[in-house]
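[Meeting: bench + compute handoff]

Bench side (C.D.) handed over the final construct sequence. Compute side (W.E.) agreed to return the predicted structure before the next meeting so the bench team could plan truncations. Sequence as handed over:
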Amino acid sequence: MKKNIWMFHHYATPPTMSGLVRPYEFSKQLKIKGYKSTVFASAFLHYTSENLISDTRKHIEHLDNGVRFIFVRSSEYKGNGLSRVLNMISFAYNLFSVTKSLLKKEEKPDVIYASSPHPLTLLAGIRIAHKLKISCICEVRDLWPESLVAYRIIKRNSLIAKILYQGEKWIYKKADKLIFTMEGGKDYIIERGWDKESGGPIDLDKVHHINNGVDLEVFDNNRKHCLLEDDDLANEDIFKVIYTGSIRRANNLELIINAAKYVNEKSDANIKFLIFGDGSERENLENRCKTENIYNVIFKGQVCKKYIPYIVSKSNLNILNYSYHDIWKYGGSQNKKFEYLASGRPVLSTITMGYDIIKKYGAGISLSDQSAESIGEAIIAIANMNRDEYLTMSNNARNAAQDYDFKVLTKKLIEIIEDV
């Protein structure tokens, strides 16, 4: 039994802070199973721009619900320019000295689990594991540089892309195990020609998939006890279409507004769109709704995450909205998808992804045509659905969430850890 696990994840936090909680959820479940887990994350918090280290210390320790965090000193930044790249570099670089310091007073880990919001963390994980003569499991959350190419940030044949592809290939080769959060990770490696059957260096037997998920026990507890007073949520006479998340240009909420306008014009049903969240595009979208008399859209603003289970469970339909890019063919692992499924309400996705969970479980509708008309017609169809069909779709959503409970996902992780 490999009892001591070090997890490297740049943007990891406990739920009490604003960040990504997957490492926390795994660590919590690993502890129950008798493992010791330490999460290494950046002390400069990406989602709030708060710096947890205000002095000269290289790291601080934080304990949350029994989960140990080591927050590593990292440079501060704004936006997505050079300063953010320097933050990534500083975090990966400081991991070496921080882990070396810790090893002077505690035992070395049995396994390093390095996760990739960016590839430098994987590189650091592999290097540190090599020095300690232990195994490194690399978790691929985002395909670098494929995501950058898909979003037209860099060109596929540019020098920087070629360098990044070679670095990605090296990481996949050197990792003792690979875990993709999207189900099509193997497809991606095969398409790149990096698998051994294609003459490449990567053994597909070491490639695995563990999607994101939800802690159903915490979700259900918050749904029951963290209630939000809201007249629209409480109104049983309206069909509530709910979106939760950021309101930025990348979130493409303009499409939802277009769909709401279409529904307003084409349906006599009392359908309202409730938008929970905030971002740089909110004011523009609110002004547009006022100007064009789109009164079936209500912006509710930012809410504390603990209220999300109650909010999405009071909906009649939860909506996932993304701009389509080729990269979705490998699947998706968005956190909010599993909160939507856990609500036991149908889910409407404005795109169809590869390995589509919503289609697989019959938990809603995934659209191939991303237009206001197709989205509007799908919403109207679900609003007019007969009760038995609607309840079947709702039950399918909740059943899907049970397969993505972190208790289930951690069992998969343990199997990989023990096999490495």
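W.E. noted at the follow-up: Residues 290 and 297 are 10 Å apart (CA to CA). C.D. will use this when planning the next construct.
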